[in-house]
Design brief:
36% helix; 22% strand; Rossmann fold; 8 strands; alpha/beta
Length: 228
């Protein structure tokens, strides 16, 4: 699990909180024109901060009084139940496997205006479940009841799950870590998304230090055609 796990807004420092608010504002403008409000959060590799970024961005969005839900679709190494310190006995895999109803898997009000569906038991076939019609139906259903759906997904350069999900959502936010993520890893992840014609909503550079202190998250807007 990423460092800073379990540290959620508004318990963070002013600079980190403001950085998330900036990221939230940019995302609001990016999504404003479209009907699909599902956003996939991923990273090139593991331990780059994607799950905590997903949790905090969803929390920041919920602070605008929007109805928000987190869907933990990392069914290989799930983290959201650890971040929010809740049970993961059942969840997304239970829904996609046909073992439980959606309404019974939603954990209500883990933060004000914020619900969550945890990953559930780790299945033997995560990619097949995520690519199934049930997954698309679930995203569409959640979009009818929530203003924003944030989907935590596995690292792009390790498995194909995030690319599968990005094609079903409005797009993907790519999380990288300062002094850890490499140019080649980032380029490889962007190439995979571009090849699949997935929409890259932006790139977050995580854990940047500024003026000797930990600044936190910084939003960098990426557009197709930019040099990386």
């Amino acid at each position: 699990m990423e460092s800073n796990s379990g540290v959620l807004l508004p318990a963070m420092s002013f600079h980190v909180t403001e950085a998330y608010k900036t990221l939230r504002t940019n995302l609001l403008f990016t999504l404003a024109a479209g009907e699909n409000k599902a956003v996939v959060i991923s990273s090139p590799l593991q331990s780059e901060g994607k799950s905590v970024t997903c949790a905090n961005l969803a929390t920041a969005m919920a602070q605008t009084d929007a109805k928000v839900i987190i869907l933990d679709a990392d069914m290989r190494k799930p983290s959201q139940h650890k971040v929010f310190k809740i049970s993961n006995i059942e969840g997304l895999s239970s829904i996609l496997g046909g073992f439980s109803e959606v309404s019974k898997m939603i954990r209500k009000d883990i933060q004000p205006n914020l619900d969550i569906i945890t990953s559930g038991p780790i299945p033997p076939n995560p990619s097949e479940l995520l690519e199934s019609p049930r997954m698309l139906d679930l995203i569409i259903l959640l979009g009818e009841y929530y203003d924003y759906v944030f989907i935590d997904s596995p690292p792009i350069n390790i498995v194909s799950d995030a690319v599968i999900l990005a094609k079903k959502a409005a797009g993907l936010v790519l999380v990288t870590r300062h002094r850890q993520s490499t140019y080649s890893d980032l380029t490889k992840a962007v190439s995979k998304l571009s090849f699949a014609d997935a929409n890259i909503l932006g790139i977050v550079v995580n854990a940047i230090k500024e003026q000797g202190g930990l600044y936190g998250k910084y939003k960098y807007r990426y557009k197709y055609g930019d040099d990386l």
